């Protein structure tokens, strides 16, 4: 009989991990409070802590910091995860046109580029595996405040089209789902009557349970009906961001956005929305419709599950011998790193369960 793994969480991390575990031959159950649904019915108040519906979501290549040290190590680790994710997104988009994935150019304009950008040549970017990377000429910048720019090939997903697709795949392959809010993570090992024997649990709960290093980064964005031919990101000199992420699949385009550490305000600000729209229209006027406008649909407020020290991707053997693989704290990069994280989850589960089987 295959070993049974329970995944806590049905955000992009729990779903991707669950599918990779199935591919590795495990029997998998997902236990979660929130499951993917059409975006139109996700509740902005009661489901604000379920981050996956509120993401963009695009892949932005992040070059590693040039100076050796923990920052560079972390960036290289995340870059490797984003490359694994990119490969899988490419294969999925080709095989499953309805998965919610769209490939398009990614454009970046930076007003105050850090050393990792200044050092980035087209040769270095090719070595890092960033496809179609090209440094923009100054005459391609939208205005004189931009100091550095680039273009590359990347992907965007429509988050709930994509997550509903993953959930369907999981169930079609025999996965079980269990809609339940856990008050304490060890509950998974105590739910025998519902779940049977649990050989390992994966903690893909987004912000974990009581990890003191977890916080949130609030993001306010909004949706417009205007389609866009690229995903565009601008870093402003004051540290703020102006970006768009086309969702595809008739989902409009996300215009953003803020990054506000520890701000728990669930209400969108109308002034912030007006600023986001005005700044994006000035940066990328190609998005405007024939009347020169952006057609606003709705505001979004989300909470990126941010962890001091970066994402947690490791095994913990709790008292009593229960095996838990943690996969949370993805911050603003959950989609970008999802398949890389899921593949690592499988390696961690496998090494723990095989190691244990050989000791019996
Ligand atoms: C405005 C905004 C823009 C973003 N843009 C991008 C982007 O462009 N690219 C990108 O890669 N990322 C982006 N992100 C980040 C991305 O959305 C997150 O990193 C990702 O959604 C996190 O996924 P997750 O599966 O870890 O967590 P979640 O989606 O929060 O899922 C957590 C799961 O755990 C369950 N859970 C939690 N606690 C319990 C409990 N006690 N009992 C039972 N179940 C529980 C929840 O119900 C849910 O199913 C953005 C985020 C925001 C807010
Ligand atoms: C979201 O999470 C925070 C922190 O854990 C909690 O205080 C709050 O009640 C949650 N909100 C909802 C709507 O569940
Ligand atoms: C999930 O992570 C928290 C830390 O945030 C930890 O206390 C808990 O043990 C983990 N989950 C499981 C299933 O144990
Ligand atoms: C929190 O961060 C500190 C310092 O970065 C680290 O020593 C500690 O182990 C972390 N705690 C958890 C639960 O990961």
Automatic annotation (TrEMBL):
SUPFAM superfamilies, per database record: FAD-linked reductases, C-terminal domain (SSF54373), Nucleotide-binding domain (SSF51971)
Signal peptide: 1-18
Gene3D superfamilies: D-Amino Acid Oxidase, subunit A, domain 2, NAD(P)-binding Rossmann-like Domain
One Pfam family, short name: DAO
InterPro entries tied to this protein: D-amino_acid_oxidase_CS, DAO, FAD-dep_OxRdtase
Keywords noted in UniProt: FAD, Flavoprotein, Oxidoreductase, Signal
Needed cofactors: FAD
Tree of life domain: Eukaryota
Family: Belongs to the DAMOX/DASOX family.
Protein name (record): FAD dependent oxidoreductase domain-containing protein
């Amino acid at each position: 009989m295959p070993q049974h793994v329970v995944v806590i969480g049905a955000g992009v991390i729990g779903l991707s991990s669950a599918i990779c575990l199935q591919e590795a031959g495990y029997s998998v159950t997902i236990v979660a409070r929130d499951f993917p649904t059409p975006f139109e019915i996700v509740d902005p108040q009661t489901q604000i802590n379920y981050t996956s519906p509120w993401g963009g979501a695009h892949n932005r290549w992040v070059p590693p910091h040039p100076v050796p040290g923990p920052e560079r190590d972390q960036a290289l680790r995340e870059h490797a995860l984003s490359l694994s994710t990119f490969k899988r997104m490419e294969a999925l988009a080709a095989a499953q046109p309805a998965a919610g994935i769209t490939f398009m150019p990614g454009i970046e304009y930076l007003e105050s580029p850090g050393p990792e950008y200044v050092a980035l040549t087209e040769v270095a970017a090719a070595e890092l595996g960033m496809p179609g990377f090209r440094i923009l000429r100054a005459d391609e910048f939208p205005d004189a405040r931009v100091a550095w720019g680039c273009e590359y090939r990347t992907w965007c997903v429509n988050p709930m089209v994509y997550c509903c697709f993953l959930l369907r795949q999981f169930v079609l392959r025999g996965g079980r789902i269990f809609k339940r809010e856990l008050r304490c993570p060890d509950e998974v090992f105590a739910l025998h009557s519902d779940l049977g024997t649990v050989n390992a649990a994966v903690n893909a709960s987004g912000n974990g349970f009581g990890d003191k290093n977890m916080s949130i980064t609030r993001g306010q964005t909004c949706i417009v009906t205007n389609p866009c031919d690229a995903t565009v990101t601008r870093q402003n000199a004051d540290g703020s961001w102006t970006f768009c992420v086309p969702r595809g699949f008739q989902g409009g385009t996300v215009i953003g956005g803020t990054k506000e550490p520890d701000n728990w305000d669930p209400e969108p600000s109308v002034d912030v929305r007006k600023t986001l729209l005005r700044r994006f229209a000035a940066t990328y006027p190609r998005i405007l419709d024939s009347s020169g406008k952006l057609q606003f649909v709705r505001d979004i407020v989300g909470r990126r599950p941010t962890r001091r020290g970066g994402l947690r991707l490791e095994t913990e053997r709790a008292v009593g011998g229960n095996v838990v693989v943690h996969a949370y704290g993805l911050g603003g990069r959950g989609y970008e790193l999802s398949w890389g994280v899921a593949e690592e989850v499988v390696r961690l589960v496998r090494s723990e369960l095989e190691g244990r089987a050989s000791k019996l």
